[in-house]
Design brief:
The complex is a heterodimer.
Chain A: E1 9-12, E2 18-23, E3 35-39, E4 46-49, E5 63-68, E6 71-76, E7 85-93, E8 98-101, E9 105-109
Parallel strand pairs in A: 1-9
Antiparallel strand pairs in A: 2-6, 3-4, 3-7, 5-6, 7-8, 7-9
Chain B: E1 3-7, E2 11-12, E3 18-25, E4 34-41, E5 48-53, E6 59-61, E7 69-74, E8 79-84, E9 93-101, E10 107-111, E11 115-119
Parallel strand pairs in B: 2-11
Antiparallel strand pairs in B: 1-3, 3-8, 4-5, 4-9, 5-6, 7-8, 9-10, 9-11
Classes of the chains: A mainly beta, B mainly beta.
Chain lengths: 110, 121
């Protein structure tokens, strides 16, 4: 059971928008920065969003993140078949004194 | 650019100690602006944070693994290492080393390619 809660799967058609949620608590999301990672099949995860809503260089602005209270959201617009991947949220948990991840969300682009 | 590379045995016997090393290139591990972390992922499952170490040698571990884990750093070799004792089949996973960078709000901006470790007799 993951500390952060994500939906197991989401799906949408090419060109559409999808939202992936990540729910936590005051000990993690509520008081720490959230990162999002994209893991394409057979590869290592890649940093997609950091500091709740910032994109590393090279990440398209189709990907955006936000945080409100103890929840965070990843939005992906203009979906492409190449976006099919597993997406993970992650942050620090001050009570556990440890990094924590969500269970991951599998995105299917229909 | 910054690169991380995991190395170590791909097969470990039950009850023995898993040992992996991460070699850092393109930046000094002593730069002081990052933590150096280990993450694992069992086949078909999610990511699990194992622990991290700072250049000073101060380490923090996942409470669920704390009794079995040791992470150390060798600044002279620009490497950091993971030891996990008393392994069982449940420790079979892909193990990644990563950098948690201050410049990315301690998000993991660099990942190794991962190394598969199987626990089996």
């Amino acid at each position: 059971q993951s500390v952060l809660t994500q939906p197991p799967s989401v799906s949408a058609a090419p060109g559409q928008k999808v939202t992936i949620s990540c729910s936590g608590s005051s000990s993690n999301i509520g008081n720490n920065y959230v990162s999002w990672y994209q893991q394409l099949p057979g590869t290592a995860p890649k940093l997609l969003i950091y500091g709740n809503n910032k994109r590393p260089s090279g990440i398209p602005d189709r990907f955006s993140g936000s945080k409100s209270g103890t929840s965070a959201t990843l939005d992906i617009t203009g979906l492409q078949t190449g976006d099919e991947a597993d997406y993970y949220c992650g942050t620090w948990d001050g009570s556990l004194t440890a990094g924590v991840f969500g269970g991951g969300t599998k995105l299917t682009v229909l | 650019q910054v690169q991380l590379q995991e190395s170590g045995p791909g097969l470990v016997k039950p009850s023995q100690t898993l040992s992996l090393t991460c070699t850092v290139s393109g930046v000094s591990i002593s730069s002081g602006d990052s933590y150096w972390s280990w993450i694992r992922q069992p086949a078909g499952k999610g990511l699990e944070w194992i622990g991290r170490i700072y250049t000073s040698g101060s380490a923090t571990y996942n409470p669920s693994l704390k009794s079995r884990v040791t992470i150390s750093v060798d600044t002279s070799k620009n490497q950091f290492s993971l030891k996990l004792s008393s392994v069982t089949a449940a420790d079979t996973a892909v193990y990644y080393c990563t950098r948690e960078s201050y410049f990315y709000s301690y998000g993991m901006d660099v990942w190794g390619q991962g190394t598969t470790v199987t626990v089996s007799s």
